[in-house]
Amino acid sequence: MSDPTESGFCCPDHSGPQSATRILSQAQARAARMRLRLTPVRLRTLEILIAAHGALGAYDVLEKLAAEGYGTQPPVAYRALNWLVEHGFAHRIRRLNAFTACAHPADDHAAAFFICDRCDSVTEAPAVAVTAALTDAAQAAGFAMERATIEAVGQCRACDGAGA
Amino acid sequence: MSDPTESGFCCPDHSGPQSATRILSQAQARAARMRLRLTPVRLRTLEILIAAHGALGAYDVLEKLAAEGYGTQPPVAYRALNWLVEHGFAHRIRRLNAFTACAHPADDHAAAFFICDRCDSVTEAPAVAVTAALTDAAQAAGFAMERATIEAVGQCRACDGAGA
DNA sequence: CCCTTGACTGTTATGTTATTACGTTAGATA
DNA sequence: TATCTAACGTAATAACATAACAGTCAAGGG
Ligand SMILES: [Zn+2]
Ligand SMILES: [Zn+2]
Ligand SMILES: [Zn+2]
Ligand SMILES: [Zn+2]
Q1: Scanning A42, B21, B79, B158, which has its CA 20 to 30 A from the CA of B70?
Q2: Do A114 and B141 form a contact (C-beta atoms < 8 A)?
Q3: Taking chain B, what is the end-to-end CA distance rounded to the nearest angstrom?
Q4: pLDDT number for residue A4
């Protein structure tokens, strides 16, 4: 009932196979445009993240990769995941020690993440205004900000009110 | 040269023994006011965090506690640290897997953290505006936000321009 | 006064997440 | 073809975190 992979309500951007295809093709277009090598392991890792909906731990990804004949050791997963994050195909969710596919790999963007503490769904949202406010705060503190992690915990639309 | 414990420039709020004392007495006042038991291990842990300036990992704290005759095993440090975080005496810095003393334990507050990637200093800043923007974004997404993690990486005032 | 209760501290053992180091492979370059 | 380099693979280990359980002690009711 509160499993986001079944409800389809976890987030508007990851709501079905149609969307998965869209994300993947945006990602491939981005890779081509930027001359980035989306190799088999990297591509497969990205597909796994997209299919997972919520965030996956590195060892979850590794397990799937290993089952498909890729390497069996942690660096295999961490290298692919870190590469995807560095190049804008995925995001790292620090509160969960996990990774999630970027919902909008077409363009560079500042994102915030909403993490449901009931169903563990993770929703990516544009965070232009939040980042602007944070940039102001940084300047006031004399800090040269480069990038930020913005994660919120609470209840997603599906779980709020439903569970209790 | 870029060691924040020596420069005194890492952040305006943690800039010396005077400030350490202020933070500690604010914390003790808070504990008294809220009837919270700031026991010896907890107090000592807080003092260690305050003295450290930047963020400390749980095992760094544990090492110091153990050297002073407290328990030697991870749960000793994690319990004290988690208690301090839960009750507003410290914050967890997820990007660093570390903990830092709250600079303003007198009042409840939304905070953002600026992490210097040169000297590893961590500065706590008020984040009312940032949190407001994030709350707006959450509402737009139909998400019932409870709390947030806001961490930025970049260069602190002391390191920016200095190093390179 | 004695017993129960619950918060706190401690230990052992284990689980989870992440990196270092190094050898091999395969495509690009000259 | 010889060389170079990014990518991939493995083994080993480091770093971070929790589960489960035992002993201590102060507060409160019989
Ligand atoms: Zn994204
Ligand atoms: Zn939910
Ligand atoms: Zn604080
Ligand atoms: Zn610095």
Answers
A1: B21
A2: yes
A3: 13
A4: 41
* Torsion angle (degrees, nearest 10) of CA A133, A135, A139, A141: 70
CB atoms within 10 A of CB A37: 9
Residue A163 has pLDDT above 60, yes or no: no
Q: Can you spell out the DSSP letters for B90-159?
A: EEEEGGGTEEEE-S-TTS---EEEEEETTT--EEEEE-HHHHHHHHHHHHHTT-EEEEEEEEEEEE-TTT
User: Hey, what domains does chain A have and what are their CATH numbers?
Assistant: 14-101 (1.10.10.10), 109-164 (3.30.1490.190)
**Residues 6 or more apart from B139 whose CB is under 8 A from it?**
none
**Cβ of residue B94 closer than 8 Å to a chain A Cβ:** yes
Mutation choice for A interface testing from B15, B150, B153, B160 by most A CBs within 10 A: B150
Q: What is the pLDDT of residue B19?
A: 86
The pLDDT-based confidence of B53 (bands split at 50, 70, 90) is confident
What's A112's DSSP letter? Answer: E
B128 Cβ under 8 Å from any chain A Cβ:
no
* Helix and strand counts by DSSP (H, E) for chain B: 6, 5
Instruction: Report the C-alpha gap between B89 and B30 in whole angstroms.
Output: 9
Please check whether residue A128 touches B, CB under 8 A. no
pTM for the complete prediction?
Answer: 0.90
How many Å separate Cα B82 from the centre of its chain?
A: 12
CB contact (8 A) between residue B137 and residue A156:
no
pLDDT digits (tens, 9 = 90+) for A72-127: 999 999 999 999 999 999 999 999 999 999 999 999 999 999 999 998 899 999 99
Rounded Cα gap, residues B144 and B126, in angstroms: 22
State the DSSP H helix or E strand holding residue A113, giving kind and residue range, or none if neither: strand A111-116
State the distance between the two ends of chain A, measured CA to CA, in whole angstroms: 13
A154·B133 Cβ contact <8 A: no
